[in-house]
Amino acid sequence: MKLIKENTLFIMWIVAVLATAGSLFFSVIMEFVPCALCWWQRIAMYPLAAILLIGFYQDDKRSILYSAPFIFAGWLISIYHNLVQLKVIPESASPCVSGVPCSEKWINWFGFISIPMLAFFAFTILLSLFLLEIYNNKEFLNAKKS
Fold first, then answer.
1. Residue 113 pairs with which residues in a beta bridge?
2. pLDDT, tens digit, for every residue of 76-121?
3. For the segment 38-60, what is each residue's pLDDT rounded down to a tens digit?
4. Contact 81, 119 (CB under 8 A)
5. At 113, is the secondary structure helix, strand, or coil?
6. Contacts of 108 (CB under 8 A, 6+ apart)
7. CA distance 103 to 116
8. How far are the Cα atoms of 6, 43, 55, 74 from residue 22, in angstroms, in the given order?
9. DSSP per residue over 15-72, as a string?
């Protein structure tokens, strides 16, 4: 626990980089065409790799706060996308009106892991680490960077 507590920003950066690399692998190497919701999740994930890297190098824990909107938005979009794929939400309620349908499953590992599920795992890990960091370092919320 101490290892995670002392390296939260670095671990968050690693998760964001792995998720970004995985996303690029699926689209560039595997040539899976992303749907509209996949693009929105990418828009939330890709900046995190840069924001968290800068925060890590400058030892600026406030960068976690800057990443919060991306983490929350990506997490909510991934939940919505999984509900579309699981047919809890009808396809007609998704933004995929043309091109690749949002319910398309490019991968199906172990019977339940799809690309939106991988995104959900990544955003959930990031959200958990974000909340842990906020809980452990409440003082930096009010501190101004000098």
1. 109
2. 999 999 999 998 998 888 787 778 888 888 888 898 899 999 999 9
3. 999 999 999 999 999 999 999 88
4. yes
5. strand
6. 114
7. 10
8. 26, 14, 22, 15
9. HHHHHHHHHHIIIIIS-PPP-HHHHHHHHHHHHHHHHHHHHHHTT-TTHHHHHHHHHH
